[in-house]
Structure formats: C-alpha cells, structure tokens
Amino acid sequence: MAKLIYSMITSLDGYAKAAEGDLGTGADDQKVHTFINDLFRPVGTYLYGRRMYETMVYWETAHTEPDQPPHILQYARDWQAAEKIVYSTTLESVSSAKTRIERTFDPDAVRKLKAEADHDLTVDGPNLAAQAIAAGLVDEYHLFITTSVVGGGKRFFPDGVRLDLKLVEERAFDSGLIYARYRTR
Predict the structure, then answer these.
(1) Dihedral (C-alpha) 10, 181, 2, 58: value to the nearest 10 degrees?
(2) Tens digits of per-residue pLDDT, 75-111?
(3) DSSP characters for 68-94?
(4) Structural domains of the chain, with CATH
(5) Tens digit of each residue's pLDDT (9 = 90 or more) over 137-183
(6) Bridge partners of 46?
(7) What pTM, to 2 d.p., does this model score?
C-alpha cells in the first residue's frame, strides 16, 4: 500500500502560508531544491486544492523557459510524469496533462487510491491536508522549516487535531532550512 505524504514549506512558528509576505529564506537554495526533487521523484499522484494546483501548474511549462538550470528541468519532468487530482468546486478545467478534477474530497476514495497505488501520493496545501489529517489518511509529514517567524497566516497543522508522530529523518541545510520527516505512530 502506498503512503500519503503531507509536505510543505513552513515558517519556524508553524505557518504554511504567511498572513503577509512570504515564509522567509532557505527554500530557494539549489541544494534544497535538488533534495526535494530526489525526495518526491517516486511520487505517483499529487492531491491538490485549487489554489495549490494553480501555483504548481507552473511546472507544466517550466521546461520551455530559457536557461533553466538542470534541477528545475528535472523537477518539471517529474511533476509532469505524475498524476494530479484537483479538489475544487469552482475550477472549470485544468491546464496540465494527467490531471483530473474531483468536486469533493472523499476519504474512502483516497483510501482506495492508496491501496491500489504503486507509488506514494502527496496531499498539498493546508486546507486539503486538514481534511486528509482529520480522516486519518496521512502517513508521513515532511516539514521544510524556514528561518522566519511570520506571526500569523494559515497553519501547517490544523487546529483541534492531536497527532503522535515519530521523527524518522532530519537534515539541516546551509541556508538555515531544516527538513524534518515524521511518521504517524
């Protein structure tokens, strides 16, 4: 059975999206990007909400921009190779291959996807992840923690959820970014 992984960049104070501005430094480092490429290359399906999909669809055409470095081209190829499911009640069409729209998040359908998948899945975006966490679907949490405290915004973990996790991997980068991978106990 495949794992469902929730992974995002987060501020030091736990926000996946800052109320104002960005999440700070550390995530734009080439070493970090190459690490992320290697980490998520085996992912077979990305589960997105509309806003996260609209951010990530950049990778459908990133390879067409001139002078892209190899790590950017590799991520674009990996992203294009994966299946994408966008959960949205408002999105009318998608602009990437291997992508379909689902109008509602159905935990049982995601359980079936996990059971039948040959490759891991990710759930991306704090709103959609909150639904997957509440349904007990997330197997691993991959946090990329920046050096900034942003003071507010959209939290990485939803309020009102208690999780007992086991730290299984950690890495610090020269940029100050910290990667921490936790598994559900």
Answers:
(1) 30
(2) 999 999 999 999 999 999 999 999 999 999 999 999 9
(3) --HHHHHHHHHHHHSEEEEE-SS----
(4) 4-139+146-163+171-177 (3.40.430.10)
(5) 999 999 999 999 999 999 999 999 999 999 999 999 998 999 999 99
(6) 84, 122
(7) 0.95
Retrieve residue 134's tokens: 């509440």
Question: In a 3-state reduction of DSSP, which class is residue 109?
Answer: helix
Amino acid at 150: V
* Helical (H) or strand (E) element with 55: helix 50-56
User: With b meaning 16 or more CB within 10 Å and e meaning fewer, what string describes 37-59?
Assistant: bebbeebebbbbbbebbeebbeb
Cα distance between residue 13 and residue 148, in whole Å: 8
Q: What share of the chain is helix, strand, coil (3-state, %, to 5)?
A: 30, 30, 40
